[in-house]
Amino acid sequence: MEELLEILYTIERPGDFCASGTIDPCFPGLDIENVGTIGFPLTEYQAKEIIRQCSKAPFGRGEQTVVDSKVRSTWMLEPNQFLFKNPQWDRHVKGVVETVKEQFGLSNSTISHELYKCLLYEKDDFFSIHRDTEKTENMFATLVIVMPSEHKGGELIVYHEGEEKKFSFGKKSPLLKNLQSWAKEKSSAKPPYEKLLKYCTVELQNASSVIIEEPKDWAQNIKLTCKCADCRELQVFLKDTEAKVHNFRVKKERRQHLHNIISRHAPDMTHITTRKGSPYTLVCTKTRDTYRKKLKQREIDRSLLEELNNM
Ligand SMILES: [Zn+2]
Predict the structure, then answer these.
(1) Distance 231 CA to ligand 1 centre (A)
(2) How far apart are CA 161 and CA 128, in angstroms?
(3) 3-state secondary structure of 272
(4) For 268, which of 61, 64, 226, 289 could close a Cys bridge (C-beta 3.0–4.6 Å)?
């Protein structure tokens, strides 16, 4: 990936008021208070855990800082709520800042960066057109680092003196498509572009040709950490090759405990409380979610590959 990064940097980008690029995958070791270390790509479960620690992000209106969901809707963590445990991460960000400096034509200036916020955009979250307030003296730019997560859509549009630059985070291979037009205009961009295209094609070919086997039975190889009677029962059900559904007709606290355990271990299973009789019943039904997700991903990879082959 280091090589890929170099290729990207050798391609001249138009525009001097904003710049974008891809950094090679470096795990930041993001550690959030009361949640722990966050893995990437972000899972839905961890996203929900993070949201529990977040507040709704405000924005500057004149001298004031206000929260208004019509203008901005996104979750936010303050810098004192998280840290990056990987010492390499800051080196990485410094590298980005140095590159951006060149692109902004500030090669001879000394610039530094400051951590501001960690944001989490849920479905339909947004920030309408605004001008970033100067958070510190002499601040001249905002650096946005988008961490990997499974998502659709997402766009950042930067306006400057009548010009507009659009960054799409959710479209299929947007980077390559953008680069393609440069490569056509600028002959020196062609060899690195072709190298990159080749690299992506090989990666997608590998991903597209993986063999995904349908599970032969209903057993799930998950080891529950809790050893209480309910969890032992759940453990037996998980290991069972035949059983697809299991009912827990137990009191609220015990259902809640099972709910927490299931959420933590995330087996392929739905768990729904049936509000009939007393106590209610927690109905656990095994699914083929992981298998289906793998199939879906392979389908996406295949269509991306087709797209690349047609470019
Ligand atoms: Zn338990």
Answers:
(1) 4
(2) 18
(3) strand
(4) 289
Q: Where do the domains of the chain lie? A: 10-170, 229-287
Q: How far is ligand 1, taken at its centre, from the CA of residue 61, in Å?
A: 49
Distance in angstroms (rounded) separating the CA atoms of residues 303 and 251:
48
pLDDT of residue 130: 81
Given a contact cutoff of 8 angstroms between Cβ atoms, the answer to whether 269 and 285 are in contact is: yes
Q: What is the pLDDT of residue 24?
A: 65
Among 47-61, 157-171, 258-272, name the most confident range: 258-272
Contact in structure between 18 and 158 (CB atoms under 8 Å): yes
In the reported structure, the alpha carbon of residue 147 is separated from the centroid of ligand 1 by a whole-number distance in angstroms of: 34
Which residues on adjacent β-strands are paired with residue 284?
246, 271
Amino acid at 29: G
Give phi and psi for 201, each to the nearest 5: -60, -45
Report the range of poorest mean pLDDT among 22-26, 216-220, 256-260: 22-26
Output the CA 235–ligand 1 centroid distance in Å: 10
Q: What letter does residue 149 receive in the DSSP assignment?
A: B
Q: Is the CB of residue 173 less than 8 Å from the CB of residue 307?
A: yes
User: Which pLDDT tens digit goes with each residue over 69-92?
Assistant: 778 888 999 999 999 998 888 888
34 alpha carbon – ligand 1 mean position (Å): 21
